[in-house]
Each structure stands twice: as structure tokens, then as C-alpha cells.
Amino acid sequence: MLEQLLIFTRGGLILWTCKEIGNALKGSPIDTLIRSCLLEERSGDVSFNYDAHGAAYTLKWTFHNDLGLVFVAVYQRILHLLYVDDLLSVVKQSFSEIYDPKRMAYDDFDETFRQLRKEAEARAEELRKTKQVVGKPVSSVKKQGQVSKAGLEGGNKKMSEGGSKKDDGDGNKAKVGNLTNGHSNGNHRMEDDSQKTDLANGKENTTDNVALDLSKLQKLRSKGVRGRGGIRKADSIGNKGSKVTAAEPAKKATKKNRVWDDAAPKKEKLDFTDSVDENGSNDHVDIAAADQGESMMDKEEVFSSDSESEDDDEPGSDEKPEAKKKGWFSSVFQSITGKANLERTDLEQPLKALKERLMTKNVAEEIAGKLCESVEASLEGKKLASFTRISSTVQGAMEDALIRILTPTRSIDILRDVHAAKEQRRPYVVVFVGVNGVGKSTNLAKVAYWLLQHKVSVMMAACDTFRSGAVEQLRTHARRLQVPIFEKGYEKDPAVVAKEAIQEATRNGSDVVLVDTAGRMQDNEPLMRALSKLINLNNPDLVLFVGEALVGNEAVDQLSKFNQKLSDLSTSGNTRLIDGILLTKFDTIDDKVGAALSMVYISGAPVMFVGCGQSYPDLKKLNVKAIVKTLLK
Amino acid sequence: MENLEDLKILAEQWSHQGIEYLQKIPPTQLYVAIGVLLLTTILFLLSIRLFRRTKSNTVLLSGLSGSGKTVLFYQLRDGSSHQGTVTSMEPNEGTFILHSEKAKKGKIKPVHLVDVPGHSRLRPKLEEFLPQAAAIVFVVDALEFLPNCRAASEYLYDILTNANVVKKKIPVLLCCNKTDKLTAHTKEFIRKQMEKEIEKLRASRSAISTADIANDFTIGIEGEVFSFSHCYNKVIVAEASGLNGETVQVQDFIREYIKP
């Protein structure tokens, strides 16, 4: 069942929680959701999983951007509650009607919520049944039992409620509604019987039952679905104008598609019947789709897609010429008064342009897409302020998002950490990891130079026992910087070399040990295993990922695979992931600074240093504002 | 009556003259004149707004995430924390008379209170509000103090070395929240620990590189152990309990700098 449903403002004040559910949540899933998902620009995702304190929750959320409200539903992961999306959207709709910024308590919403929940459950119930019968004729008794349990609780009540609502509609629909009503009741009764008998018997019974249903339901299916459409219609007519109703089911339909992906073939049919209700143009779409499937000729494909898009945009196309007619004056007027509410269609164009701009700046495609989704989620339904254009609003939101991402969450003051380690009389260990040829050794030397300037004694550890010449390279750097180097030649286990180096550093009182490792491709299993061993054995204070600023889409793959491997291959309980990023070759990329964004977004680790030249002093901190400016230029 | 007719004729003459005069002027000049008129009015309106802002009554609530800023905000505004709070994603803002002063008669100057989210991703938001601030309340969780000590000190250090704070000498109240709990640390302990941490930070924050100008000023006196009394601005330590609504010291602090 639903564990909790919360409504809170973006400012963080809880406005309403479901008191009747009332069980206390284990841990703090809401705070975790906000901190690690919504604030990390991942609000475009579908759901969030929370594991801690022995609880496994799934959280779903929706925003009301205009009012600045967030709706979050929490439920146990093992239960795949299908009605949550639906419930959230109806709760959002009805709560936004009674919301008043000055009011702080909404006790009267309890009753409304109870009603909405029942309706949502009923809808999901019905849908599941049709799906179960048509999609998976034979299913386990357990699942059936669960359905019947949930159904029997309020099944009759819900149905009668639904029935009464349908009476508002035309007589035909009400009739169908009654039909489905009776049918589902019968179904439950039989289920109940089967539960009373022993298990094996029950199984037989249910399969029989289901088979019976199959024939019945196939006849009823189209009607039944239409009936459900009726409920929805009745629901929404009560609240809003008819224009909104046309848009509403379409929205819901797309959401539902996402949830039930195992019923792919049926889904389309559902949609099809639904839209028959709305307008008769549906046949046309079907034909067009068929055309697309059969013909391979370009011309026809273009044609069919054209006609399809026309059909899809039916409500929109009515408005478009009108908008054109209104012309210049109205657009000026609109920009002064501020547009009513931003819709998804308004945001599409500027976001697409923005995504392309980000991609030209070398941001990985996946990341750019996710960011745009998140910005879209944060803007949809928001009121456009006066004297602003949509594109500038979108740009502003994106700028905020980028600054938020690039602002480090952990302290990047290494010197402070070094001093803390010094107090504990142990060396501060930094491990440099990365793929081949990104400049690990060079930047290790730069970091050593910087540390030396701040009067920290440094020791290098040559743990690249793989590539010939690596130890000599490091030795050259050590000689030039006049720092001690710990080396054990080649053909040694790097983990052991690092361990000995740290022991040596403790003995001679070095403050920092910089561990150079061999470059490795993220897919190289044996080398990744060796790296994981090195990190687990020595437990360094900082695992620094060295990455080129030149990479584009590859950045995502590198970092996510490194992190993945480190967590998969770790033997001890606490997994060490990448703590920070060192971005190299930053002087070579001009304005294509996207790699910084991709890397930070995918790993959540901050950029601690930026290598920007050939000589030792060429090491900088990342200037977040400059990067954001360059990205959006 | 004649008088009125005379006036009418006079007005007609004037309007005729005016129209003629207008027609004489080239249209471009006319548009320019209208443009200039509009611009001046807009500038005038803007300057009025700016002028108003100089008399600031803004108090910032800052501190780490989870220290209880939002609860404190609602305690000061409504005298109740309502049904609890979650991590803030956006600042809470409000201009109001403090809840405890509602019973008082006479005109009281309202306070513009801003609760800035403490999540590190939202830190840059604070800088937007700092130029307007008249006072800052830095909230520290006295219950879970030690694990957060370093992060809190770093945040406070950033505030204390901010150019706006230093130049305008914005007073800071170090508010130890959640003192209703038994195991909460005392304010003296917290002050000492944070002074120690800032002392360490002072040593390490000697500019990493010129690329990033995070801290414009250094604080404290060279060669001496740092103490809050060394700051350019005033730093006061106080106790509060957001949950129980014991916010007298915070209110006193606010009213000290924003006179009612």
C-alpha cells in the first residue's frame, strides 16, 4: 500500500500529509530524495529508490511549478503500485484549487484525498484486470489474491461510486459501466471461493475463472475501456472546462505508457479506444501508422508522418492560425502582461535549441538531454514573468541548474584536509586514476609542486608497474621538484607498492603521498580489479579521477564505468568511489568546456583541479561562473 | 455663459495651435521625444526602488542543511512550525512583523526575513541576498554539532570573509539551535570549536590560485589565535529552540538591528 503522501512547498514547509496512513517512514526518504535527486537536476527521472535503515521505498513526485508545490508519494518497492502516477496528478489538480499561500493547514483535504485515492485505485484495478486477462491469461494465485484483497475492500463501494458518476454521462455509458461493475463483482466472489479451498485447487479455479473472463472480457473490453473514459470525463468535467478534458486524458495516457511496459501491444489498443471517445479522427491515425509500417519508400513515409502529426496536433492546430492572426501587437501585449502558464509545447523549441548549444560545447548528449528534461520539469506550468521571453526564462533556469551542478558539495580545500591528517600523524594519500594518456603523471607533478609551495612535504609513489618507462618518468619529475620518490621497479603488485610507500611516508614524516597508477581503459577487467584492490587495501583519503577536457560522450562512459567497477569489485563493506576530478588539457579546448559538466553530473564529484598548460604552475581551480557563462554563450 | 463660450473658443484656438505645432515637428523628432519621456519615467521609477532598498530591513537565515532554518523562519513568522519541514529547495522569503510583536500596539517596522537553503548546491543563492542584508543569523545544529563542525565552520568562514559582510560590517548571530534536546552542546563549546576550526581554515585558505576569488578578505589578527571578537563585524552567540519556539534571543538580535 501507499506508505505516505506528502505535499510541501519548494521552500520546504510540509502543507499536508496523509494522516490516516500514518505509519512512520523509516529513515528520511523525502530529504534524501530532495538532496540526491531533485537538487542534482535529476527531477526528469520517473522514480527514485531509497534504501536505508532496512527500508526499500520507491518515491514518485510531481511538481506544481506555478504554485511552487511538490507532491511526493512513498511506497514499498516490492509493491508495484500502478495508480501512483494517476493519483499524484489528480491530487495535484484538486489540491492546487484549494491552495492558498497564506493558509498553512489543510485538514479538509483528508476527505478529498480519500475519495481521490479510492477512485485512482479503482481505475488501476480495472486496468490491471483487463491487462491480466488479456496480456497474461495465467498468473499466480498470489497475485490474483492480492488483487482480490485490494479489490474486495472497497471494490463494491468504488464501483457503485463510479456507477453513480457515470449516470451523469449519457445512458449508454452508464449501462456499460454497470455491466463491468457486475462482471468484476462476480470475479471477486469466485476468487474468494478459490481462496477458501486449498492452493492447488485454487490455482485450477483461477485459471478456469480467468479463461472464462477472457471470452467475456474480450467482448467487453472496448466498451469497458470506454466506460472508464467516461469516469475520467465525469471527473474532470466537474473541475474544468471541456477543452482541458481533451488534453487531460492524452497526458495521462502518455504517463501510463511509461508504467506498463510489459503490455506493449495492448497499450496501443487502449489508447486507440480512448481516443475514439474523444474524436472520430482516430481511424485516420491508425491507417497512417499502418502506412508507415508497410511502405519503405521515402515519399510515402514523409506523407504519412505529415498526416499523423496533423492529427496529433488537432487541438493545437486550431489555436495556431489564431495566434498568427493576433500578430505583433498581441505578442507584445503578452510579453508585457506575462503569459498565463508555460506549457510543454512552449518549452520544446527553446529547450531543443539549448540542448544543441550545450552539445556544441562538448557536453555529452545524454547529460544535455537529462538536464533539459529537468529544466522542463521545473518550468512546466510556471507563470512567465512580465517583460520576459520564454527563451530567456529557459536560459535563466538552465543557468541556475548549471551553477547548482557545478558547485561542489564537499569541501575541495585539500590543504585543510592535509593539515587535519597531519594532526593525526598520518600521511594524506591521494590516488590518481584514469585512462591512458590523459596526463596522470604530469598533473601529479603539478599537484606536488603546488603542495610544496604551501610548505607541505610530498612523497611520490610509483605504482605504475605496468607501462615501461613510467617509473623513470616519475623519477624525473621527482628529481626536478626535489621530492622523495618511492619505487619498487616493475612487475610488482601496485597495491603492495602503495602500501609500502605509505608506511615509508609515515616513517619519514611526509605529509602527503601522491600515488601514480597505470592508465587503464574502463573496460579492462583485470586492471580495474587491480585498481580496486589498491584502493581497498590502502584506503586513500582522496581518489582523484584524471580526465581529459577533450572528451565528449566518452566522459560519461569513463566515469560511470570507473565508479561502477570500483563499487562492484570492492571487497570490504565501505565502497570507495571517485572523490574528485582533475580536468587536464583545459588549455586546448577553447570554449568546448562541456566535459567538466558531463563529468561532474555523472559522478557527483567536484572538479578539484584544472590542468591548463605544460609547466608546473599551470594548475587552477575551476571557475564555476566562467564555465557556466561559456556553456551558455 | 459668455465666459464659458469664450473659454471654449480659447480652448479650440489652443488645440488648433497645438495640432499645427505638432504637424510642424518632423515625426522622428516626435518619436524621440516620446521615447525620452518614457525612459526618464522608467529611470525615475527604478531609482525610487533602489532608493528604498538602501534602507534595508533584510535578515538572512543561513546555515547548513538540516540545522533548522525553515522551522525558525516559521516560528518567527507564525509562532508555529506547522507540520514540520523537509529540505528546502528554494529560499523562503517574507516581510512581516514578528509573531510575538503582533499583540503590541502602534506601528512596528516589519522585518524582511529570508531563509536561504543550506544545501551546498544552493550556496550561491546566499550571495544574491548578501548585498541587501542588514543582519545574518547563522544557525548551527547544537545536537549534531561535531560531525558537521567542519562544514559549518567553512560556511561561516565564507560568510565572514565575504566582501559585503566585511565592508558593511553586517552583524552575525551564531544561533545554536535545538537546545531543547538533552544532549545538545552548549553555546560556549560550539563557539570555541568553531573558532578553532576557523583558525585552521585561516592557515589553509591562503589563496589556492588567482583563478577563483572565493574569499576577498582575511579575518583575524596575524599571529594571534582566532577569536570571533577579531572580526570586522560583530559576532554574537545565542541559543534557540526552533521546535519549542524559544526564539527570544534571535528576536532580540533582529530587533537590535532593525528598530521597530
From TrEMBL, chain A:
<feature type="domain" description="SRP54-type proteins GTP-binding">
    <location>
        <begin position="606"/>
        <end position="619"/>
    </location>
</feature>
<feature type="compositionally biased region" description="Basic and acidic residues">
    <location>
        <begin position="258"/>
        <end position="272"/>
    </location>
</feature>
<dbReference type="GO" id="GO:0005047">
    <property type="term" value="F:signal recognition particle binding"/>
</dbReference>
<feature type="compositionally biased region" description="Polar residues">
    <location>
        <begin position="178"/>
        <end position="187"/>
    </location>
</feature>
<feature type="compositionally biased region" description="Basic and acidic residues">
    <location>
        <begin position="155"/>
        <end position="173"/>
    </location>
</feature>
<feature type="compositionally biased region" description="Acidic residues">
    <location>
        <begin position="307"/>
        <end position="316"/>
    </location>
</feature>
<dbReference type="InterPro" id="IPR011012">
    <property type="entry name" value="Longin-like_dom_sf"/>
</dbReference>
<dbReference type="GO" id="GO:0006886">
    <property type="term" value="P:intracellular protein transport"/>
</dbReference>
<dbReference type="Pfam" id="PF02881">
    <property type="entry name" value="SRP54_N"/>
</dbReference>
<keyword id="KW-0472">Membrane</keyword>
<keyword id="KW-0256">Endoplasmic reticulum</keyword>
<comment type="similarity">
    <text>Belongs to the GTP-binding SRP family.</text>
</comment>
<dbReference type="InterPro" id="IPR013822">
    <property type="entry name" value="Signal_recog_particl_SRP54_hlx"/>
</dbReference>
<dbReference type="InterPro" id="IPR007222">
    <property type="entry name" value="Sig_recog_particle_rcpt_asu_N"/>
</dbReference>
<feature type="compositionally biased region" description="Basic residues">
    <location>
        <begin position="218"/>
        <end position="231"/>
    </location>
</feature>
<dbReference type="Pfam" id="PF00448">
    <property type="entry name" value="SRP54"/>
</dbReference>
<dbReference type="InterPro" id="IPR000897">
    <property type="entry name" value="SRP54_GTPase_dom"/>
</dbReference>
<keyword id="KW-0342">GTP-binding</keyword>
<dbReference type="Pfam" id="PF04086">
    <property type="entry name" value="SRP-alpha_N"/>
</dbReference>
<dbReference type="GO" id="GO:0006614">
    <property type="term" value="P:SRP-dependent cotranslational protein targeting to membrane"/>
</dbReference>
<dbReference type="InterPro" id="IPR003593">
    <property type="entry name" value="AAA+_ATPase"/>
</dbReference>
<protein>
    <recommendedName>
        <fullName>SRP54-type proteins GTP-binding domain-containing protein</fullName>
    </recommendedName>
</protein>
Automatic annotation (TrEMBL), chain B:
<keyword id="KW-0547">Nucleotide-binding</keyword>
<keyword id="KW-0812">Transmembrane</keyword>
<keyword id="KW-0472">Membrane</keyword>
<dbReference type="GO" id="GO:0045047">
    <property type="term" value="P:protein targeting to ER"/>
</dbReference>
<keyword id="KW-0256">Endoplasmic reticulum</keyword>
<protein>
    <recommendedName>
        <fullName>Signal recognition particle receptor subunit beta</fullName>
    </recommendedName>
</protein>
<dbReference type="InterPro" id="IPR027417">
    <property type="entry name" value="P-loop_NTPase"/>
</dbReference>
<dbReference type="GO" id="GO:0005785">
    <property type="term" value="C:signal recognition particle receptor complex"/>
</dbReference>
<comment type="similarity">
    <text>Belongs to the SRP receptor beta subunit family.</text>
</comment>
<dbReference type="InterPro" id="IPR019009">
    <property type="entry name" value="SRP_receptor_beta_su"/>
</dbReference>
<feature type="transmembrane region" description="Helical">
    <location>
        <begin position="30"/>
        <end position="51"/>
    </location>
</feature>
<dbReference type="Pfam" id="PF09439">
    <property type="entry name" value="SRPRB"/>
</dbReference>
<keyword id="KW-0675">Receptor</keyword>
<keyword id="KW-1133">Transmembrane helix</keyword>
<dbReference type="GO" id="GO:0005525">
    <property type="term" value="F:GTP binding"/>
</dbReference>
<keyword id="KW-0342">GTP-binding</keyword>
